[in-house]
Design brief:
alpha/beta, globular, TIM Barrel, three-stranded antiparallel β-sheet
């Protein structure tokens, strides 16, 4: 059995666009006719350029190869161009293709992917959700409203969730780490207070920041949030300095989580060695794929750290996350996004039920991709999956954060 054909579908979820502006789905077919699906989360270049990168990685390192040889293909991509180091674009392209290889292998052997990763360690996976606006909420007002966030959290708990994530501490500026405005600190405290009062001890609070603060700024904010006992403080400083994040971890009594922007076991191991985080959040469509993150989870186990796969993408990456989670002894939980489009794209083959996900027993990833639906919603723009703003933090007038990645108007 050899990898033969590649097809790439860049599909855009309808408004309001939860999961990003577009999802990059890859479809691999072997010379024996087995089809595997994967998803690339890399978003450092636009869709047209990313399509070219995926095609190059496949043709250069994978086409004609036995899909069993994942280690060999990974080393080719990882070392390409005489680099031998993580490259978020190349590794992101490989990650989605690697996920598709596992789907192929599971289907060829009539076994679910997790059965090929050491077996089923967990019969169900604890899920968490980001706080999204309810139908009666004003979307533009939601992101700065502790009261609406509390209502959304209460709704999530009523649906069975035991953990909710929110990130009111914007802005997400490309200018690097900054000191939060006092208004950002006050709003973050108000969010934690309102959500904690709404859910009590029925759910954990997961506080996101997405790498936007200096160490001093992150410590200042984190210490203000300690009375509400969040389960984690997500990526409090930019990902390029594990020493900075370690300073935060040592000075804030909230576990630090990180990983959605990291690639390969090399970067995750550096975080663990520095004592910078206790919860790892790999995005499997960027981080190196299923096998590389299985290795990363084993390293984390030695350090007493847990894994909580990240998801701000489509349901194919989610399926990969669930299979990895099913095989891990140190899984904490997995992120989910429940929209009608997510569900329809995999024909309801995996769902959250009462706050948990049951790993599928069907062969491969256990999903049936609605290829026709994916093609009916092509992404026609040239924007990135997510963006950071150029304007700096506003210390005089306050800051507003619009969640997710809404479709471009016009």
């Amino acid at each position: 059995m050899k990898l033969q054909d590649l097809d790439i579908i860049i599909t855009a979820p309808p408004a309001p666009g939860w999961g990003g502006r577009y999802w990059t789905l890859v479809k691999l077919t072997t010379d024996t006719g087995v089809v595997g699906w994967g998803e690339c989360y890399a978003s450092t270049v636009g869709p047209t350029a990313m399509r070219a990168v995926i095609e190059d990685v496949f043709a250069r390192h994978m086409q004609g190869e036995n899909p069993e040889n994942i280690e060999l293909m990974f080393r080719r991509a990882y070392s390409s161009g005489f680099t031998q180091r993580p490259d978020p674009t190349v590794i992101g392209a490989f990650s989605g293709l690697e996920i598709a290889c596992w789907d192929i292998l599971g289907k060829d052997r009539n076994r679910p992917v997790h059965a090929l990763l050491g077996g089923r360690m967990n019969d169900r996976i604890r899920a968490y959700t980001y706080l999204y606006p309810l139908p009666d909420h004003d979307i533009s007002a939601f992101w700065n409203s502790p009261e609406m966030a509390a209502e959304s959290a209460e709704d999530a708990v009523n649906r069975g969730y035991t953990a909710v994530k929110f990130d009111p501490a914007g802005p997400y500026t490309m200018r690097g780490g900054h000191m939060p405005a006092m208004s950002d600190v006050s709003r973050s405290v108000a969010f934690c207070k309102a959500i904690r009062e709404a859910v009590g001890d029925k759910a954990d609070l997961l506080f996101g920041t997405h790498g936007q603060f200096t160490p001093a700024g992150a410590i200042r904010l984190g210490q203000a949030l300690e009375p509400y006992s969040p389960l984690w403080y997500e990526e409090p400083t930019p990902p390029d300095s594990v020493g900075d994040m370690a300073r935060v971890a040592k000075n804030v009594r909230i576990p630090v989580a990180t990983g959605e922007r990291l690639c390969t076991k090399a970067e995750f191991a550096a975080v663990l060695q520095a004592g910078a985080a206790e919860i790892l959040q790999p995005a499997l469509g960027r981080a190196g794929g299923i096998w590389e993150m299985k290795k990363t989870a084993a390293i984390a186990e030695v350090f007493g750290a847990q894994v909580a796969p990240h998801l701000y993408a489509g349901p194919v990456e989610w399926a990969a996350n669930i299979h990895l989670a099913a095989s891990l002894p140190n899984i904490l939980m997995a992120e989910t996004i429940e929209t009608a489009f997510h569900d329809r794209l995999i024909k309801g083959s995996i769902r959250v039920e009462e706050g948990f996900v049951t790993p599928p027993q069907s062969p491969g990833l256990g999903i049936e991709v609605d290829e026709e639906l994916a093609r009916q919603h092509p992404f026609k723009g040239d924007d990135l999956h997510l963006n950071m703003q150029e304007t700096p933090c506003d210390y005089a007038n306050g800051n507003a954060f619009e969640g997710g990645a809404p479709p471009i108007e016009g």
